[in-house]
Amino acid sequence: MLAYILRRTLYAIPILIGVNLITFALFFVVNTPDDMARMQLGAKRVTQAEIERWKAAHGYDKPLLWNARAAGSEKLAQTVFFQKSVRLFAFDFGASEDGRNIAAEIRTRMWPSLALAIPVFLVGLALNISFALAMAFFRATYLDFWGVVLCVVMMSISTLFYIIAGQYLVAKLWDLVPISGYNSGLHAIKFLILPVAIGVASGVGAGSRWYRTLFLEEMGKDYVRTARAKGLSEAVVMFRHVLKNAMIPILTGVVVVIPLLFMGSLLMESFFGIPGLGSYTIDAIQSQDFAVVRSMVFIGSLLYILGLLLTDLSYTLVDPRVRLE
Length: 325
Hints:
The protein is about 70% helix and about 0% strand. Helix 6 (about 100-135) packs antiparallel against helix 7, helix 6 crosses helix 9 (about 190-220) and helix 7 (about 140-155) packs across helix 9. It has 2 domains: about 1-90, no CATH class; about 100-320, MetI-like (MetI-like fold), CATH 1.10.3720. By secondary structure, it is mainly α. The relative contact order is 0.13.
């Protein structure tokens, strides 16, 4: 087990390097350090001298990937990519282009993101599994048919539509909750009710339909027919056998998402004015703040790799036949 974890951890290093390289290339294909300087200086007419001073102060006065003027290993070391990316592996995120400490911003903004993401995850998971079990239990009936139709309709609607419709109906027309904003402590509940409800509703269609497929696949196997032949009730078969044996594919989609809850929701936080990591990332992209973008991409990649590792480890808990070698 320890050897497996160590091997997967070592695999993560080249993956993270590749992700950082791709992020770096995509950012600077459509953007240059001069563009970043003009954006950050915020002046309509910026002289080249001011641009050069900003680039020197923020470390963008070096070549991007290859320094032909340097000697030996300095050809790689004296570049923007190397000096901006290597310290991420020591979790030194540095400062954003406007001078704010990125690590401090992450520590502050992670709590609104978690306050939104955790209820959406837990309520959505319980609702999806319950609805899918009900459709599988009443399979080939009108409840199953219209349940599948409802799932297809809901998964065909964009999340953006749910957000706009929810804000218009619930917040503006009915005036039940604030249309946007956030507050700390228990006062945050009134700001989170609507985005949590929309987050759950937008995922019910795809989630329930997928879980229903898993349950129906399990219900066609020999051990289920054997359980029914022994006289077990359909409810016992569903909850004691089908649900338990469907946990491996469910864990594949669930456990890998858990670390990513930290990152928040880009759309939801932006539209509802929640100061989480999702809106932080969107603001950084809009302001061409590469320091924040690379830090958030690095954290997201690291958490995704951690989620995959947790998924593999969780298999051993629900299925004793699985052994990690």
